Amino acid sequence: MGRNDKILKKQDPKDLAEFNNLVSQAFQARYKIETGFIELAQSIFLINKKKLYRVKYKTFAQFCEEELGFSRQTIYVYISILKLINEYKKYFSKEKAVEFGHKKMRHITEGVNAIDKIIVDTHKREKKKIEIFKKVKPTMASTEIEALIEDIIDEL
Fold first, then answer.
1. What pLDDT does 6 receive?
2. Could you tell me if residue 51 is left (phi over 0), alpha (psi between -120 and 50 degrees) or otherwise beta?
């Protein structure tokens, strides 16, 4: 028996409801992914600060690798992002950090850490950081942010 293309192409009203439900779930999951890096950073920061990892592990590195599946270095990147958000709330509210996303915030944090190592004078160091904060935009590509920060650092 041949197939009936008219029946197969006919839209079922239940399909639209299921589609809308699944799209809603997808958006909720996407939001969790986008905000998750900050929530992860907040949790691990407190676990490290309070040494709670000692309940099950000898070292923080063991906890990171065995419990979370991340290297200690990766976890410290998340913690650095959290510290940047907390220290420079005027430029990076939680919402704005989410808008930038993990990868872009990582580049910004790495730039700030490099400036901290290069510039000794506190006033000049803060001025250079704020220059970066004012120039980067969430709409910029990650590579564009990375290049901008590299240019600023190279000028030092």
1. 58
2. left
**In 3D, which of 96, 122, 110 has the Cα closest to residue 149?**
110
* Cβ atoms 99, 137 nearer than 8 A: no
Number of H-type helices and E-type strands within the chain: 8, 0
State both tokens at 132.
């970066």
CA distances (Å), origin 10, targets 3, 7, 16: 13, 5, 12
* pLDDT digit string, tens, across residues 123-133: 999 999 999 99
C-alpha span between 97 and 35 (Å, rounded): 9
Q: Tokens at residue 1, please? A: 């028996």
0.70 exceeded by pTM: yes
Q: What token pair was written down for 64?
A: 């990171």
Q: Which helix (H) or strand (E) holds 41?
A: helix 13-49
SS3 53: helix
Give yes or no for residue 3 having a pLDDT over 70.
no
